[in-house]
Amino acid sequence: MKAIVCTKYGPPEVLQLQEVEKPAPRNNEVCIKIFATAVTASDCIVRGFKLPVWQPMGLMMGIVVGFKRPRRPILGMVFAGEVESAGRDVKRFNKGDRVYGSTFNSSRIRFGAYAEYICLPEDSMIVSKPSRLTYEEAAALLYGTGLALYFLRKGNIQSGQKILIYGASGAIGTSAVQLARYFGAEVTGVCSTANLELVRSLGAGTVIDYTKEDFPDRGGLYDFILDAVGKRKSSAFKFQCKKALTPNGKYISVDDGSPKTYIEDLILLNELVEAGKMRPVIDRTYPLEQMAEAHRYVDKGHKKGNVVITVGHNKT
Fold first, then answer.
1. What was the pLDDT predicted at 193?
2. What whole-number distance in Å separates Cα of residue 139 and Cα of residue 134?
């Protein structure tokens, strides 16, 4: 089968298209024919090993994924496709089931979605694909939405709160805007000029262009500020955010904590999609053969929503 192999840590060029052996499912596994995957910020961090090893997060990353090169050279954390075969002990899925999911959950981190096929235990983060989504849309749904859901819950979001989402046009931000509206919050989104209408269309009642003004200058106070960009921002930025909070307000960054996603979260996402309350945002789509170019684009840090990869045997 075709797969993108990460030969070593470094720039996008370390990602090489290769022919590798097709995996066979064990008794408790399903083999999924992948039609679409996505390039996430986490994929780029792993590919470039962008965390210094002398810092706790860098050391932890090296222990988990490998110090000199990835122990699992086929990266990729999200996928959408069709069950091609199942081990004899599998009960949840049957051949031909249309599914989407993630290679990681609360107890283990795996990769492998940058390929034509992947084998995963049936208790992995896999659910049926919503009927109203294409495979590309399903692959774009989980990463940002799963993280947004985790951090909104961590902040104990409540109906009626005023919430500001900084970085409202990225993969996490576009999902956070929609989820915050679902939870009944009054949403203000912060993004660049080019993305104002997008963020407004997702449900933000107020949109602030960070290229023209700093949101604290408006004088409004928020019950909850979610920094959906992260990247270890300066203490000055955090001070700005906390200055814009109500007395009991909360500031949370996507840099905070180790997100966990559960199968129940995917079930909730499916319900929201089918009810028309959640839609994935896709910026660009690339074929598997152009994975390095897709990583190069994501590295720039200006994508709107998600960047999706289609695999050769893709179908709608």
1. 96
2. 9
